[in-house]
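Predict the holo structure. Ligand: acetyl coenzyme *A.
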Amino acid sequence: MTMPPEGHGTRILGTGSATPEKVLSNQDLEQILDTSDEWIRQRTGIRTRRVVDQSTGAGTISLACDALENAVANTGIDPLEIDLIICATCTQEMTCPSAACRAQARVGAFNAAAFDLAAACSGYVYGINIADTLIRQGRHKTIAVIGADAMSTVMDYSERSVSILFGDAAGAAIITRDENPERGCIYQNLGADGRGWECLYMPRREIDVPESDKETPIRLGCLRMNGREVFKFAVKKFLSVIETTLQEANISIDDVSQLICHQSNLRIIESARERLGLEKDRVYVNIDRVGNSSSGSIGLCLDELNQAGRIREGEIVLMVAFGGGMTWASSLWRV
Ligand code: ACO
């Protein structure tokens, strides 16, 4: 969907993020799993991930709250000016209340409505797109979007093909109205194909487990993934979503100053980068340090780029994600 040029635009007022202090390295995983640092680095590009210390009560909610607090501090905004908070997550500690409500209370954004959004790793980009649309429609002026996941809380650390990939993180952005209608999201795409749900799911009950997985030992409450299928889907989808986005927006890849891909696997990101012919410094990568943090991933990348002064006014930034559902999303911004 291309955004109409009339009316007003949007801008990213500021960003924040949060990662736990505790580091889980490949060497740590070697102690508990039949795996090796070399295998993990070669197949995924990951060296370390950050994980919450669950014994202190830390988890998705504390990460979401910290990220939003940091975004509020980064913008200097009065939290009472925020009129909506969207928190994308697939690791809710409680389905009621939402993590968004908890973050609202933490920062004192008492004029804001708040809800959680479940689109797995695509959740943050879904949230950014919804925020841009609502602001352009004039119903809201300032929206905080958080992506937060404590993936370590849904990992089965006896399952080597899944647990090596994931880490915990949150990213937040505060988006507000801008008088320039050309500024903000210039093209967005949201997609889903529910037929692929069995590739990535978290069963709560035995009955949730599909026939195809009945023979595999599964810990209830933990993420289950068909890595090969997700890999094939991701490689194809990343490229087609990026190409469609550029085509529909009538923008060349040469105009994009930063491509921010969901940090799922370095090989997936590299395959898209090579096929698009992009130089390394135009495709942000932090998966080596933090692993795949699902909904936290793109928000964390955006904040790290922003803090480094690499999100410059007027430039074009493209965010692309895919995830469980299956879901996917793109968001092309003139920032
Ligand atoms: N250490 C050592 N060996 C391993 C490990 C491990 N951690 N995991 C699997 N293996 C073995 C397998 O048992 C297999 O052995 P076999 O040949 O004897 O049967 C061999 O390595 C190859 O296994 P594959 O599954 O084919 O390995 P692959 O190269 O596909 O890599 C991986 C696996 C890294 C999971 C890859 O498939 C992948 O990254 N998929 C995409 C996952 C992804 O992006 N998920 C996030 C989705 S986003 C969201 O919404 C949550």
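DSSP finds ten helices and 13 strands in the chain. Residues 35, 39-40, 43-44, 120-121, 160-161, 164-165, 200, 225, 227-228, 230-231, 234, 264-265, 292, 294, 323-324 surround acetyl coenzyme *A (CB under 6 Å).
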